[in-house]
Amino acid sequence: MQEGSLFLKQLPIGSVVGVRVTDGTDLAATATVRDSAATPGPALVLTALYTGSFGNTLKYTLAAGSNSTVAVPTYKLSMQLGQFVPEVFDRIVPLTGVAPWTAIVAAVNSTTSGSKSVVAALSATPSLLAPATAGSAGVFAGGTDGAGITTAMAVGVDGASGLRTGMYALRSQNLDAVWLAGIADATSWTTVAAFARSEKAVGYGSIPTGLSVASAIQAKLGAGLDDPYFVVTKDFVTYLDSYLGLNATVAPACLVAGIACGVSAEQSPGNRPAYGIIGTENTINPNGQPYSNADLANLEAAGIMVVTNPIPSGNTFGTRHGKNTSSNFATSEIPYARKTNDIVRNLGGQTLGQFVNKLQSTRNNDPLRLQVSAALNGYLAPQKSNGIINDFRVTCDATNNPATSIRAGILVAEVVVSYLSVVDKFICNLTAGQTVDVVAASTLGSLG
Fold this sequence. Notes:
Oligomer: single chain
Number of domains: 3
Distance between the termini: 67 Å
Radius of gyration: 29 Å
Helix content: 10-25%
Shape: globular
Order of helices and strands: HEEEEEHEEHEHEHEEEHEHHEEHHEHE
Number of strands: 17
Number of helices: 11
Strand order of the largest sheet: 8-9-10-14-15
């Protein structure tokens, strides 16, 4: 949850999909609501929807409803998880016997307007008494986090729909970024990278905390990873978790993924500020020292994204560069994979999907191929004019659709896209000194 919180602080575009992973020993917090007997007995059991110690921050209040009268009493159940907005179920109308409690259970468990944090159930022996008119309140207890998650648990098992676990449960979710929360294990990187490629996403991994620059580079090389669809990040980060009210230290993959998802696909997430950061393992460490230029150059050359302060744009915490793990300069910037995925997703959707199962002729001016060309030009031309791509070319005509292919039910469109170039090195030539003559720029062209 903490990694998800820091991810959201980077203002990513789109929604977030997560998979809860358990070792089977975690428990959900519970609370028992009692009736109005002289010695109040159990009437209702409230159980946190999710396991974990955070459920112990749940509180409930059961009181008279906002429209309650002596003749027609109603009830209001309020529940609050941590600092989240309370859930309120008001004007619950009791009937007779167990009906008051049954009505409360129905309100909490409603599939359309029910609780997002709690499930309710009648006690083992349903109470025949009404809730206390003076109201009652209580806190949840008993929630535990389990013994811990291993890399294997987080990765999970692939398989058919309904049988996938861990990371593989995220298949077909239209992902942009994927990482294993709470895991900083180099042995998982190639597996996450393969999954990310298959899902048209970019995978992110974290260097274990405490490693030197040389050890981090060796870890990356030892993983055998050279892939534009995977990003290795370094330096655990600390931020203030406003929900838990404490400083939390987490692996950097979530932060870098959040920064990347906060910009459009053609933009580099490098040299961008990180929001909400108190420090990194290098800056908070009392024995830590700023990275030298040689350290930063070596990390960049190795394809390791480091979170540090300063970054080229100023004295702030952020991403030093925007490199992935590819050693090929042409594909080494994160926008290469993100923009390619973006184009593939769009072309594989409605842009070209609308032409499947339509009719194609062998005529040179076939209307279907003209429509395909128009759709592709309509998708790419605005991107060129708006500075999202550099240039493009579309071919879908008789030159690449011979009669033999057409009769075999095949339609071919060839699309070539040139991306804009990320400024990797900025060279500024400076001439300065008291003996330097400055010639006005407007006169340089006339000098011979």
